[in-house]
């Protein structure tokens, strides 16, 4: 992945870009993807950059 594309994706990952208030084509541009999704090699690159999309479980203390 080229450095420019990587920096743009890191800005998105760091939530610098507000995706809720821009047109869908702008979202695709910011995410560096298309309506068809990502190619396999792009998925691997993004997994290395961002990791898996997992939520952390919080322990709940019940009294």
Automatic annotation (TrEMBL):
A Pfam family of this chain: Cation_ATPase_N
Domain Cation-transporting P-type ATPase N-terminal: 21-59
SUPFAM superfamilies (UniProt xref): Calcium ATPase, transmembrane domain M (SSF81665)
Protein name: Cation-transporting P-type ATPase N-terminal domain-containing protein
